[in-house]
Design brief:
The structure holds two protein chains of two kinds.
Chain A (H helix, E strand, L loop, with lengths): L7 E6 L5 H7 L4 H8 L1 E4 L13 E7 L2 E3 H13 E7 L1 H4 L12 H11 L17 E6 L9 E3 L6 H12 L16
Parallel strand pairs in A: 1-2, 1-3, 3-5, 5-7
Antiparallel strand pairs in A: 4-6
Helix pairs in contact in A: 2-6
Chain B lengths: L3 E6 L2 E6 L4 H7 L23 E4 L6 E2 L10 E3 L3 H17 L14 H8 L23 E3 L9 H8 L6 E4 L6 E4 L15 H5 L5 E3 L12 E6 L8 E7 L2 E6 L13 H4 L14 E4 L2 E4 L2 H17 L4 E6 L5 H14 L4 E4 L3 H13 L7 H6 L2 E5 L3 H4 L1 H14 L3 E4 L12 E3 L6 H16 L7 H8 L3 H8 L3 H13 L3 E5 L1 H4 L4 H13 L11 E3 L6 H7 L9 E9 L7 H9 L2 E6 L11 E4 L8 E4 L5 E4 L12 H20 L1
Parallel strand pairs in B: 1-5, 15-16, 15-22, 17-18, 17-20, 18-19, 20-21, 22-23, 23-24
Antiparallel strand pairs in B: 1-2, 3-4, 3-5, 6-9, 7-8, 10-11, 11-12, 13-14, 13-24, 25-26
Helix pairs in contact in B: 7-21, 8-21, 9-18, 13-14, 13-15, 13-16, 13-18, 15-16
Classes of the chains: A alpha/beta, B alpha/beta.
Chain lengths: ~180, ~650
């Protein structure tokens, strides 16, 4: 009996608080179901360099795009995954990272690195190795095509499991049923 | 009878009457058409485009909330095209402002969110604009956050249509459009009367209460109607409860007097308790108030009352709040008048009622006009009355008359009043010279309308002896103002005179008599002989107190003063201070540890407004009965129970004395 190839899932974490990944872990024992039906190739704690991201069927993205590195990771993930699913309000709606959009970037950096009360002789990090900040934080759909978005801050474990399970079963969900859909 | 019509909505046959909108017919027939800017309290706006429907034979989409339903119409309210359009509308709304649900105060009870969920929106396809908008926190009670605003205009309409002030309006155009106060000033500095109606009607988190913003509008909260104990209009409100505690107060559509309109006092101030609660009875021992159990405190109370009753050391004086329900007032009156034989039982601010009573005695009983007459008046003369301060809901009605119908208001008050801003003319006589002004007005009326034959010679002489020049000299008002005030009154078809606490507290019934004369002189007497004059008092249940027979109290030489203040913020005048200091003993039944406590020898805990149930009678004699909304904290007994217990103890003491 030849078994069909199990779908591969990989997830990344851009500018977000990791709360969405915590919520992903909150699916608890259903994680076993996920592993039964598919496999997980990469998570935010997997050490991989740009260009070495594994090929996958479902790419999950948490967080918004705030610097040039985010864009590179995002583009690589888009290239490597068949379906790109963003989850969490940072990735899709605008959430805490977006609050800096209401101030000029320079002011935000100065607040963080120079003016904060515990800082002595602060300066804005300017090493060439460091990624550059974008002027405004944007949702990921601004840069790549997103196949499905799960809203929520964070999306509840049930909502995440519902979508992941649908994808593992080979169905692209048409939407999120009422009690599971929430923006907060 | 209205013409019946039948139309088809989504294939279902729907019945309605001519004049209804498509939305109304749909709702009446149990069909759902999504809306955002529509609100049952307000006029139709047709601005959000959520309720767009297809009507057969019409080229364009129509808004169901505004389109009149017609016989034989075939309407489609739900199909893929409409669904897509509604989704787009919602997505555009989300993209336009910073609708960040996770940290919005209204998340979970937001109508924009509800519509998005109903339309299966997981994200918006449009780019965010990220406009920089600053919330306005200058209002003491609520916040206006433009970030969450969808410009549905509900607040703007409620401000004009319900509150009557029209503070809120739209400023700027296109994508720059925002809701502004007056000409763009901060809300706290605007003409806003802080009634909070806009907060009630806001579908999103663009307007929310500062008090308990994150839970007070959650779903599934219990709501109980109650009454505002602040003035005698009898304004009812909806108390929103969370886990048995008051979360917020909102307008109650079915309120018989005020509808959904509330004042800042009943909506917000009532929840601010400046003093801690009295939780246990206290008795003064060696100069100090000591907490004791109920039995001891009640014994002490009965003993004090019994002693005064039997001996010749003076009399008992009872003073109670007018915020109490009829039942409690009656029990209190029974205890003091019947069981203690006390003749000096009154309410705080009893002078207001006393003046009216004296006027009745002097000039014969006059029935005064009702709300209906006030609503229909084409001119309002306010005498010693500042409704915008003491009766804000009435103030809002007057504002509506001024702004909607251009009704002139003339205010005569020795104080600087808030209502003066609404008035076309305001006269500020020196304190004590109000009568001169009224004589001056009467004299002017006779002269301007040539009514000398209607009054006897002596009276006419008296009035004529107050020409504007003399009034001006005596009262310090301008001559021309007196002439103009009289002219405005004389020119009106249905003028109404409203007087308030500032007039009645002068204790001069002649003033009321002059007002009645003024109405009668010009024939402003209704079909059922009521004069187009109405007096107002502070204290919700003044009318009940009057009915029960609270008839003035002489504090002079009081041996025992029994105060039932409840949660009334008693105005501690120098006179009252002195009287309490001079009294032999003071029994205080109070909910709060306020300034009265220092004078008390016995302190008994009492209930506050939300813990009381009973009947309130408003100024027009309309009775409203409500149940208590919240439970009293442990250890606090109902006022009725306390009064009964004292009565029983008093009887026991009496019997013992007989034996």
């Amino acid at each position: 009996m030849s078994e069909a190839r199990k779908p591969v899932i990989a997830s990344v974490w851009l500018a977000g608080c990791s709360g969405c990944h915590m919520s992903l872990l909150d699916i608890d024992e259903r994680l076993l179901t996920v592993l039964e039906k598919g496999s997980i190739a990469a998570t935010p704690i997997t050490d991989f360099k740009l260009g070495s991201f594994p090929q996958c069927d479902v790419g999950l993205v948490e967080g918004s795009v705030t610097n040039t590195d985010n864009i590179k990771f995002l583009e690589e993930l888009r290239a490597k995954s068949t379906y790109l699913v963003s989850f969490g309000d940072c990735a899709g709606w605008g959430c805490v990272p977006f609050m800096r959009n209401f101030f000029p970037l320079q002011e935000v950096l100065e607040h963080g690195y120079i003016w904060s009360s515990s800082t002595v002789d602060g300066h804005i990090p300017d090493d060439e190795e460091l990624p550059t900040f974008l002027d405004v934080v944007e949702p990921i759909r601004k840069f790549v095509k997103v196949d499905f978005h799960i809203p929520g801050c964070p999306p509840s474990a049930d909502t995440i499991f519902y979508v992941v399970n649908e994808l593992l079963e080979g169905r692209m969900p048409a939407g999120i049923p009422q009690p599971l859909l929430h923006f907060d | 009878m209205a013409e019946l019509i039948t139309l088809t909505i989504d294939g279902q046959e729907c019945r309605g009457t001519k004049g209804m909108t498509i939305l109304q017919v749909a709702k009446e027939n149990g069909l759902d058409i999504p809306t955002l800017c529509n609100h049952p309290w307000l006029t139709t706006h047709g601005g959000c485009r959520m309720c767009v429907v297809e009507v057969e034979g019409q080229r364009r989409l129509v808004t169901a909330c505004a389109a009149p339903a017609e016989d034989g119409q075939i309407v489609v309210a739900h199909n893929d095209r409409l669904e897509t359009l509604r989704q787009m509308t919602l997505e555009l709304l989300f993209a336009e402002r910073n609708h960040i649900c996770p940290f919005c105060a209204m998340t979970g009870v937001c109508e924009l969110q509800d519509r998005a969920y109903e339309h299966h929106i997981t994200h918006t396809r449009y780019d965010y604009i990220f406009p920089v908008l600053t919330p306005d926190t200058t209002n003491p009670y609520f916040v206006q956050d433009h970030n969450r605003c969808i410009l549905c205009g509900r607040c703007v309409r409620s401000c004009y249509e319900i509150a009557g002030v029209g503070t809120l309006g739209f400023g700027h155009r296109g994508s720059q459009e925002v809701v502004i106060a007056d000409l763009g000033v901060p809300l706290g500095e605007s003409s806003c009367i802080k009634c909070g109606t806009c907060v009630d009607v806001c579908p999103t988190g663009a307007l929310f209460d500062k008090r308990a913003p994150y839970f007070s509008r959650a779903r599934g909260l219990e709501r109980k109607p109650s009454i505002c104990p602040d003035d005698d209009l009898g304004c009812a409100m909806n108390v929103v409860l969370k886990s048995g505690l008051v979360a917020r107060i909102e307008g109650w559509t079915e309120a018989p007097v005020n509808g959904p309109l509330l004042s800042y006092r009943s909506r917000y101030e009532i929840l601010n308790e400046p003093h801690p609660r009295v939780l246990k009875p206290r008795v003064r021992k060696d100069g100090e108030l000591v907490e004791v159990d109920w039995a001891e405190a009640l014994d002490a109370t009965a003993e004090l009352l019994a002693k005064t009753q039997s001996g010749a050391d003076g009399h008992v004086v009872g003073l109670c709040s007018t915020r109490l329900p009829y039942e409690t007032l009656a029990s209190y009156h029974r205890l003091l008048a019947e069981q203690c034989g006390c003749v000096d039982v009154d309410t705080f601010r009893g002078a207001q009622r006393a003046t009216r009573r004296q006027a009745d005695d002097l000039y014969g009983t006059h029935k005064e006009c009702d709300f209906e007459a006030i609503q229909q008046a084409d001119m309002v003369l306010l005498v010693g009355f500042d409704p915008c301060t003491t009766h804000p809901v009435l103030g809002a009605w007057l504002a509506k008359k001024v702004h909607h119908d251009g009704v002139p208001i003339v205010s005569i008050s020795p104080r600087t009043t808030k209502t003066a801003e609404l008035s076309i003319l305001s006269l500020k006589p020196r304190r004590g010279s109000e009568l001169a002004v009224l004589y001056g007005l009467l004299g002017q009326l006779i002269e301007q309308r040539n009514l000398g034959h209607l009054v006897d010679r002596l009276t006419a002489e008296k009035w004529r002896s107050h020409p504007p020049g003399r009034v001006s000299y005596e009262a310090g008002v301008e001559e021309q103002a007196v002439v103009r005030a009289a002219a405005l009154y004389a020119a009106a078809k249905n003028p109404v005179i409203l007087y308030g606490p500032d007039l009645t507290e002068t204790g001069n019934p002649t003033l009321i008599g002059r007002l009645w004369e003024m109405a009668q002189l010009l024939g402003h007497v209704g079909a059922s002989k009521e004069v187009m004059v109405r007096g107002f008092t502070t204290g919700a249940n003044s009318a009940a107190a009057e009915q029960i027979g609270f008839r003035g109290a002489d504090m002079e030489g009081a041996a025992v003063v029994y105060l039932l203040s409840g949660d009334d913020p008693v105005d501690l005048t120098p006179q009252l201070r002195q009287d309490l200091r001079d009294a032999g003993a003071v029994i205080l039944q109070s909910a709060h540890d306020g300034p009265l406590v220092q004078y008390a020898d016995v302190v008994l805990p009492s209930l506050k407004w939300s813990e009381r149930g009973g009947t309130w009678i408003n100024v027009m004699g309309v009775g409203q009965t409500f149940e208590a909304c919240t439970k009293a904290p442990a250890g606090i007994k109902p006022d009725e129970w306390v009064l009964t217990e004292i009565g029983e103890r008093l009887s026991a003491v009496k019997e013992a004395a007989h034996e």
